[in-house]
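F.,

This is the one I mentioned.
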């Protein structure tokens, strides 16, 4: 194998590590934001449950106040019956009392229904608060870990680039230009295709002819894959 190819394999490993860190720099903030949204969503659900309880409490108080006023009105109407002197007036007050009783029953029924909803609401609030606390306990450490990694990415890349600076001068300029040109065209950043006993391209898996494999194994020149354009290097470990 020509010396360029030996160093290109090392360079490829270094560049893939850099690429991994660059992808992490893009993906980690997105992942952290997604986890934060999940916590915020749980918090909003808990707040919504609390808000429903507040509204129910106000409605129960209003229904209780209405029922109290209706009882007072009913009591006064019933007291008037003892002082009524005509049948016409008696019938009018009697109708008034029946109407008040109906309104009172409705108010008390609404109050009872609201109180039932209140109990359900309390259970929902307790459940949503627990879900929120669980979300924080589970996800916040992950968020902190991601943010810690984000803060270190640039320094990690800098360290890896120091390794690259030691290896890249070992590769001839023409070979380096070819390598960099291929690497920049590939989304994966993988420019080197390791070929072994399977006799296929290690990147696109195209089956290679025996004669071509022999040339790749000799490693006397740069050979590119006709399918994906990767640079072939014979994998001695997989020979």
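My design for it:
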């Amino acid at each position: 194998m020509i010396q360029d190819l030996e160093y290109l394999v090392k360079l490829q490993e270094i560049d893939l590590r850099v690429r991994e860190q660059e992808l992490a720099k893009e993906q980690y903030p997105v992942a952290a934001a997604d986890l934060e949204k999940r916590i915020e969503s749980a918090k909003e659900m808990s707040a919504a449950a609390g808000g429903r309880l507040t509204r129910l409490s106000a409605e129960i108080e209003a229904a209780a106040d209405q029922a109290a006023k209706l009882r007072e009105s009913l009591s006064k109407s019933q007291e008037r019956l003892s002082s009524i002197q005509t049948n016409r007036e008696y019938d009018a007050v009697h109708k008034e009392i029946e109407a008040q009783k109906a309104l009172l029953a409705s108010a008390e029924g609404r109050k009872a229904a609201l109180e039932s909803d209140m109990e359900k609401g309390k259970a929902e609030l307790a459940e949503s608060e627990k879900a929120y606390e669980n979300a924080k306990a589970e996800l916040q450490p992950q968020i902190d870990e991601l943010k810690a990694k984000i803060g270190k990415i640039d320094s990690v890349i800098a360290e890896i680039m120091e390794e690259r600076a030691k290896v890249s001068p070992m590769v001839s300029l023409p070979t380096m230009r070819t390598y960099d040109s291929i690497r920049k065209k590939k989304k994966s950043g993988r420019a080197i295709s390791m070929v072994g006993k399977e006799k296929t391209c290690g990147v696109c898996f195209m089956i290679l002819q025996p004669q071509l494999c022999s040339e790749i194994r000799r490693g006397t020149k740069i050979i590119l894959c006709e399918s994906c354009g990767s640079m072939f290097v014979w994998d001695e470990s997989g020979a």
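Residues 174-238 form one domain.

Talk soon.
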